[in-house]
What does this fold into?
Amino acid sequence: ERCLGHPAVDLERLSRHNLLFGQKLTNQFNDYLLGLEVNRLPKWKIYWKNPGDAGLPPEISWKNASNVDSVSLLYPMPKRFIFFDIQTFGYENEVVFPLEIKLIDKEKKLSGFLDLDAQICSEICVPITQKFDLNKLNFIKEDTTSFKKIISYKNKIPKRVTKEQLDLVSINIHKEVVSLKFKNYAISSIN
It folds into this structure.
């Protein structure tokens, strides 16, 4: 399949997707941690849950999966992109979206398909869809490399803090951009 408007770009090369098995969560016998790994060619991006002025966020559907109560698609901290006057938020190159899957019945197997719908953009935007076969994952043997990769991206997920946990350190105004720096007492560093 070729990319509309860019006949020389092969969609298979443009964006690659893998489903990584992290682990069966020990604190919840019916929960799994998976990772949706997305790799794109340079200058192409995929969007964050709040994409900004343009774009669509990735979505996961589990309607074709069996024994799934819910799937939480988690979004690591994005990068800001400015294209002319359009500001968007997303990811370049590689990103892993952690997936927390809750089963309906812990005694039954997780099976079927997860479906990804997303949009990747450079100078144009291209819709992508991908089916992931849950039956092909090895849920018995945990892959420590995949688990570490999923956890490293899970640790980049923005966390809510209360106003008591923040102090304004500085304000910088340059042209029409206002930059604020806060000390976050929840993590003891300046962000």
User: Anything to note?
Assistant: Residues 58 and 118 are 4 Å apart (CA to CA).
